[in-house]
Design goal:
Largest sheet: 6 strands, mixed
CATH topology: Nitrilase/N-carbamoyl-D-aminoacid amidohydrolase
Helix content: 25-40%
Strand content: 25-35%
Number of strands: 17
Oligomer: single chain
Mean pLDDT: 97
CATH architecture: 4-Layer Sandwich
Radius of gyration: 19 Å
Number of helices: 6
Shape: globular
CATH class: Alpha Beta
Structural class: alpha+beta
């Protein structure tokens, strides 16, 4: 089974409605060129506001699926007959917010949401100020064209998240992302960080025998140069496409989902998993306080 996946790597502006219009235009373009599943980058409707702690930024959040942005893309998906993976700032209740991705089927049906499980708190990424950790667990979504797994940005560094989502039956993994370089960093540090970021995600494809689609933003926002470099792998981690770092990009890649069986037969990691031996992974750290 083959599926055409489209990605949009853009530089955002401060005006939310302008961002939504630009992404809508890019979705139309990708759909016209044959994309069946389209993934947008993390928090695509705004600048990456988590670079500072400001209460005013909570005004950017909306309910999902009843908010205007989700409703807009539900209508667009129905009009174009495409599946959309939309990363949004969710207002769940007064004072309760999540970093959430909505998945919309090709008939405009809202299939559900995934709430980001791993929440970073680093200089330039003050996400714990804004987001409550996800409480829905890991999710898969049965769309018209494929069964999708969705994880968000910081989740991509955790092999447990990719493994569990794959074990739930995901045929491919999507990672909407917003990550970049501090403009004061050296080129050596920049290269090392990007290579680590791509390598860990490629390893999820290898370990689970599923394609990985990682969609990052680009552009300069304050002191952060978002490093773009969105990429798509096959089911054994081979990079099929990589976007430039500092330029916007649209791309469609046809993925053969039947390759998963080929790679899992030849590299039978699932067969040889020693699930009886993995209980220690549930500990924070294996020291004397764990009573091991």
């Amino acid at each position: 089974m083959k599926v055409k996946v489209g990605i949009a790597q853009l530089a955002n502006v401060a005006d939310k409605q302008q961002n939504i219009q630009r992404y809508s235009d890019k979705v139309r373009q990708l759909a016209a060129d044959g994309a069946q599943i389209i993934c947008l980058q993390e928090l695509f409707a705004s600048l990456y506001f988590c670079d500072e702690e400001r209460y005013e930024n909570f005004r950017l959040a909306e309910p999902i699926p009843d908010g205007p942005t989700c409703q807009h893309f539900m209508a667009l998906a129905k009009e174009l007959g495409v599946v959309l993976v939309c990363s949004l700032f969710e207002k769940r209740a007064e004072g309760l917010y999540h970093n959430t991705t909505a998945v919309i089927d090709a008939d405009g049906t809202y299939l559900g949401k995934y709430r980001k499980m791993h929440i970073p708190d680093d200089p330039g990424y003050y996400e714990k100020f804004y987001f409550t950790p996800g409480d829905l667990g890991y999710k898969v979504f049965h769309t018209r064209f494929a069964t999708l797994g969705v994880l968000i940005c910081w989740d991509q560094w955790y092999p447990e998240a990719a493994r569990i989502t794959s074990l739930m039956g995901a045929q491919l993994l999507f990672f909407p992302t917003a990550i970049g370089w501090d403009v004061r960093q050296s080129e050596e540090d920049n290269r090392e960080q990007y290579e680590a970021w791509q390598t860990i995600q490629r390893s999820h494809a290898v370990a689970n025998g599923v394609p990985v689609v990682s969609v990052n933003r680009t552009g300069l926002e304050g002191g952060m140069q978002f490093w773009g470099g969105s990429f798509i792998t096959n089911a054994f981690g081979r990079v099929l496409y990589q976007a430039p770092h500092k330029e916007e990009a649209l791309h469609i890649e046809e993925l053969d989902l039947d390759q998963s069986d080929h790679y899992r037969r030849h590299w039978p990691y699932y067969r040889d998993r020693r699930i009886d031996s993995y209980a220690p992974i549930l500990k924070r750290y294996l020291d004397q306080d764990c009573n091991q």
